[in-house]
Amino acid sequence: MACNPCQCAVRLALPTDPARQKTTGDFPLTLEKIRVSHDRRICFISRVTFASKITITRISLVPVFAFLACYYGYTVNSGQRVEALRWWALGVFVAAAATDGLDGWIARKFNQCSEFGAFIDPIADKALLLTGVITLTFVNWGKAGWRLPLWFAVIVVLRDCIILGGIKVLYCHHRGVKIVPHWTGKVCTVTQMFALGWVMLRVIPLSPVYPCIPAAIFTLWSSVTYIRQGQRILRGT
Question: What residues does each domain of the chain span?
């Protein structure tokens, strides 16, 4: 019967004489440890679904966008604006954002839902969104002041810190974390993305403060909603 490579690797790593190991403290050879580590890595990679690989790709695009955005801001400040960098940064951001819906659809359509995917997907979403907000807060993308206001970035980051802190509190009290998505959270994400697009596209010559106002309102609203939801979970109601 064929042997699972992970199981075989573990057996190879076991000492041939357990009694001798107790008395002498001998351990398996380093080469065998390496084989176990290598095969476990192979097993992990084989278990990552195609949907999760798309999510990992989204994470890998985050630093690419940050580099292009910062480099474009540098050319703006130097007075030698390179518009190609702006479009490349925008294209990378849109491509990364598009994979958010794609990986979820593939996971549901082809039965590829997994604990790893459920864990890494929100991390990828927050990494992309927070990188965009923070980068476009400190980097000018046009005339002086054409960027997200600092108060907006503080609200966005504070909301996520509150949510993460609430989850930590629930875990410390041995409560199952089953945060139900609320419509305010979805609208919050859409309005934040709209504010980012406003800065990057520069279609309408109005200050980015205007799209940030409704985005900030829904960000605060969704924060209060999730805080109340966490309080209900903590009370067990």
Answer: 5-41, 49-126+135-141, 148-237
